[in-house]
Amino acid sequence: MNAGFGLKHRVVFITGANRGIGRVIAETLLDYGVEKVYLAVRDLSSVDDFEMRYADRVTPIFLDLNQPNSIYAAAANAQDVDVVINNAGILNKAAILDSAAIESLQNEFDINVFGLLRMAQAFAPLLKNNGGGAFVQLNSIASLRCVPAFATYAASKAAAYSLTQAIRHELGQQGTVVLSVHPGPVDTDMAKSIGVSDAEPPSVVAQAIIKALELGEPHVFPDSRAQQIGREYKHFAKQVVE
Question: Residues in domain Ketoreductase (predicted)?
Answer without folding.
Answer: 10-189
